[in-house]
Amino acid sequence: MMSTAAAPWRIANWDRFAMAIDSLVDIMGSPRIWMMPEENDTVNTRSRGEGIRTKQEQKQVFRHESNHVPRESLVKGNSIHSLDKTISKLEEELAAARAAQESIMNGSPVTESLRIADFTSKRKYLMVIGINTAFNSRKRRDSVRATWMPQGDKRKKLEEEKGIVIRFVIGHSSTSGGILDKAIEAEDNKHGDFLRLEHVEGYLELSAKTRTYFSTAVGLWDADFYVKVDDDVHVNPGTLGKILSSHRLKPRVYVGCMKSGPILAKKGVRYQEPEHWKFGGEGNKYFRHATGQLYAISNDLATYIAINKHLLHKYANEDVSLGAWLIGLDVTHVDDKNLCCGTPPDCEWKAQAGNVCGASFDWICSGICRSDERIHEVHQRCGESEDELWKATF
User: Fold this and answer.
1) CA 153 to CA 34: how far, in whole Å?
2) In Å, how far are 60, 112, 219, 274, 358 from 204, measured between CA atoms?
3) 48-101, pLDDT tens digit by residue?
């Protein structure tokens, strides 16, 4: 049964959609069909209150109307184009509403803090940063909280003034309500910085988790971009915001450090792809996709994933999965190497040259090696100052 709180919002948006359709019909008007009389036809055209027209008069009327149609069509065409964009936007909003409604109907803990006013007010955010984390990563989360992720009132201020939402993203254990879930609940009660997903955690389920994250986030926050980052990566939110905001006006944007690594077919190796045969013969490489440590997609792509999540195939590696979901679409791939800087001295040299990195990690470890210990050093030497974050404009 649908939540009574969700019903008014859903109905209101269907009304807006219906109004847009009605406006389209009004502009289009009744269709006109003009037919030239046959040469052998007798005169058969009569206007109300007029006499019978000759064939020559009919031809003149036809030419007059034919010459007049293009000007009307031009005006109508512009209006129709405008309405088409409006309808497309409404379809995206309805898709986001369905994602939120599904969470409500499934009883997801995510929806406990959901407020319909958040949707009706349509607060617009720049980006939602989802930090992918696991049950056994408490030390990593604490190190992130102590470095680049603002805490308490500062985090709320970041959302309100800069439009940047940051949350740790995690699902549930296979034993619902078990000790692992209770530990996360206690941590969330203390910090209030989790996004809980309707998803069962597991290393082999990262593609499903990524899909669920985007579907859930686009239903909760109306943002220009949705970012996924691992909990052993250092991020400069202000710099990341500037990078993404420069692509704000582009439709269907996919931003990250693009790569096309080898497809590993041998069993037992890390990142082995069981469906390697789909990508061609031995020695082939994957299509171009963003590396999994950090990437971002625009609102329309996150909405696409939310709408089609049950049809999107999951490969062994979540970054490959996302690339596969987008490879067949008209998407702009943005390869930005400032989102995959190395740890000091690499990011430090770049910062000293005035080119602050959006994200830093060690390729050898697929993240910062021993990040719970070393991320403090990375932040000290490569992190943006608080002033830079709060003064940043997007």
Assistant:
1) 68
2) 74, 28, 25, 12, 28
3) 444 445 545 554 544 444 444 454 544 455 555 556 556 666 666 666 566 555
DSSP per residue, 118-157: HHHTT-EEEEEEEEE--TT-HHHHHHHHTTTS--THHHHH
d(CA 96, CA 221): 9
Number of Cβ within a 10 Å radius of residue 298: 24
Question: ∠205-207-211 over CA atoms, to 5°?
Answer: 115
Q: What are phi and psi of 389, to 5 degrees?
A: -70, -50
Domains, the chain, with CATH or none: 124-257+290-391 (3.90.550.10)
Task: Tell me the residue ranges of DSSP E strands in 13-154.
Answer: 124-132
- The pTM score is 0.70
Which of 113, 309, 300 is CA-nearest to residue 220? Answer: 113
351: which residues sit within 8 A by CB, 6+ positions away?
357, 381, 382
